[in-house]
Fold this protein.
Amino acid sequence: MLLSELLDAPELGLRLLHAAGGALDRPIGRLVTTDLLGPGRYLNGGEVVLTGLVWRRQPADSERFVTSMAGRGATTILAGKALLGDVPEDLLEACGRHEVTLVEVPIEIAFADVTEYVAAAGSAETGARLSASLVRQRQLLSSIAAGRSLDELAARISAEIGHDCRVLTPTGRHVVPGPGELDDDTLDVVMRRFLTADRTPAVAKAGDTSYSLFPVGSGLGNRLTAWVLVIEGDHTQWSHDHVEAVHELGAIGALDRARRDEGRRALRPLVADALALVESGAPYVEVAARLRQAGSHAERPMVVAVAELRDEGPSEVALSLFEDVALTVGPAVVAPGRDGLLVGFLPFVPGLPEQMRRAFRRLAPGLVRARLAVGISGETAIDTLAGALEEARFAQRAAGAGRAPVSVVTSDEVASHVLLLATLPDDVRRTYAQRVLGPVVEHDRRTHADLLATLQEFLACSGSWARTAESLHLHVNTVRYRIERVEQLTGRDLSRLEDRVDVFLALKSL
């Protein structure tokens, strides 16, 4: 019940002395009866404190009492005046300073009468809520049985609670977009909060808007593969009925997800067959037929993606994540390859690599010690899938050589010398760099001559003495002397392309 309803009870005769902002429309939390001067240690927040003012020996005690309880989030004091004959002015002033609501309890009213009244009202409200909840659950289940979509049910709950509801996955895929999809920056904030929150429901703040995050289903599974109810507003300010309605939508959403997941599992053997045909070099006509059976648009341009999720438990987790990202662009045509890596055949859309990169990177806060490496081929047709698969596998190896929690590399990027070096083992790179530039590094360590920095800038300026000198604020002769010293120490002639390439790659390997 609300505090205003308690004040309106004629049989109690309560008198409002000071109302904090919004107090009258606030639900009454737990009632705590105490006469301790410092009751804060026994409060958790939101309580209504009943006190006979036994603790007050002097005016300063009022400030101590109110500070203690307000510091723990208690919102209201019901003060009996039987002991002192009246509620003291210093208590009223302290409540005003700390924005705590103060209510006077008449002498003839026992605290037990107040407690029993609130308990009786609470029981009646609980019964009414349970009845309304059961009715709502039956209606939602009936709607599902009648073929209503999750979008329609979410819209219904949105209208009931007055807050827009969406259903998303941690990669940012909108299962239910609600009134419209969230922008990428908001998705990044919301999903980071969901993946890192100690408990759910949680609240994320994106700009000036708060979003309440409820798990779909029990919330006990792996959050990386969960569905999330994202609802505009802060659920801690909602009524109990509205929070229950959201939980019921989450339970219905879990049933809808189970149905969809079962449908995808039924198609996985067909995808695995198509992948086996590609790997064995079967005629593309057979591959196309199998992909069409799995729901893919085989006649359209495609890309191949290869992924590996290390140290994240069951392979089902990785498969679910990959399918989820694939669903953002088309049918989830994903299966394990012969090398144990996951392979997906996705319809080509402009900006696909960046779209997948952002989706996968949203998972990084929840990966902990796991690492996700993804390689993506260029645009291809059904008759060149085998070559695209090899491209994607090579890009995935380059991605796997990185140290970031999530690395997505396209086949176009593999042409970069940085990614080429990334495919080499660390000890090979270190040995190469030491053999070529070890004497220069040692010379700099002993003399602080800055040969390495000068060399780096010299190569960045394409071997131009003047531009290097200008960039480093040195005389041209100083640059010439330093580069000659590098040539002596390395045994390379930096006027020759081959030697310059050796030195350049060694620099990049450091």
About this structure: The chain has four domains: 3-118, 147-257, 267-416, 426-509. The radius of gyration is 34 Å.
